[in-house]
Amino acid sequence: MATQAHVIWDDGFTGYNFGLGHPMSPVRLDLTARLCREFGLFEGSDVQVDAPEAATDEVLARIHDEAYIAAVRKASLDPSAPLEQFGLGTEDDPAFVGMHEISARIAEGSRLVAESVWTGSAQHGVNFTGGLHHAMPDRASGFCIYNDAALAIDWLLDNGAKRVVYVDVDAHHGDGVEKMFWNDPRVLTISVHETGAVLFPGTGFPRDLGGPDAEGYAVNLPLPPGVGDGAWLRAFDAVVPALVRSFEPDIMVTQHGADSHFTDPLAHLSISVDAQVIVAQTLHDLSHELCGGRWVALGGGGYEVVGVVPRSWTHLVAIAAHRDISVETEVPQRWLEDVAERFGVQAPPNMGDGTSERGRIWWRSWESGYDPETAIDRAIMAAREASFPLHGLDHWFD
Ligand SMILES: [Zn+2]
Ligand SMILES: [Zn+2]
Questions:
Q1: pTM for the full model?
Q2: How many A from CA of 45 to the centre of ligand 2?
Q3: Cα of 200 to ligand 1 centre, how many Å?
Q4: What is the mean pLDDT of the chain?
Q5: Is the residue at 315 inside a domain?
Q6: Residue 30 backbone phi and psi in degrees, to 5
Q7: Calpha distance 234→238 (Å, rounded)
Q8: pLDDT of 174-185, one tens digit each?
Q9: Out of 134, 193, 315, 395, which one is annotated catalytic?
Q10: What domain count does the chain have?
Q11: Which of 91, 173, 254, 338 has CA atoms 20 to 30 A from the CA of 248?
Q12: Maximum C-alpha span of the chain
């Protein structure tokens, strides 16, 4: 029988470390893995946990320029080398010793779980160390060195997948993945994010729809700052499922950046873990409805590294393992004590934020009517108006 969930992890992944003071602290990965272990999610015959070797340069070169890979290798040996034209040694992406190897391992992790899911050795795959969606073909960007999501999608296309959907719910626009498949109608990228008018990377607007051979195969749903659970769920539901259904994907790759959370220090959305779980469950359910459960789930951003990321991605692993954890479940005491001891902070006591009724959140569906007076509805309408007709969908009614 196929493994239920193939998960990427070993402690070595905490080596993806830009140094003290950088928002992307490896603590978030360590605490996620510890919380998964507390729930027994890394145990049992239905879950396989693997720690792959680094992707080879030949594999990386399928999506990155050789000159860029050489630059990362150089920075990895000598972090003081001047490589700013490759985005390295910058404030966002400081170089560090071992940068190439660990980034290439993360990339291989996403490729590997995609292979397991595609070949049927696992039903779902999770790489919460991945989702590094800003990495560009020729440069590092936004804390991302190698684009593991793009590498996984490229492998799937190269191994027989005809249609791959990529859904990105990180607070930031999934610009690197969009760029790599911009003119490729085999890949539908959908990014739901805080508007680039306010937030890095400043891109991802509704009229950005893909290249001349793939118009409509890049979809962007930029949201105003401050959006809360009800509006976020309304927006997601009004745009994502209809497009994914109409595309009829062979497999889904999803990015679950947790920086949409109301306590995240970098973005300005106002989403709870409860709502993040609902979106992850919805994407999981869509994979069963549409593509035999072929689903690869990745991490991404998330800078409230103690209070949010570990809970959000433990839920993600649990969903993939078909061992869903209720948001009312208490966070295990041992994990809370460890966090208090090491970081001197009191982490949230429950696996949700108390914003839902047993995991359910009330929100108004698109069918209940469009209200042009609200910023959220204008944002939804702009995305639907731009993209839906290109897929034969009606932007008012479908
Ligand atoms: Zn499933
Ligand atoms: Zn982000």
A1: 0.98
A2: 33
A3: 33
A4: 98
A5: yes
A6: -60, -45
A7: 6
A8: 999 999 999 999
A9: 134
A10: 1
A11: 173
A12: 58
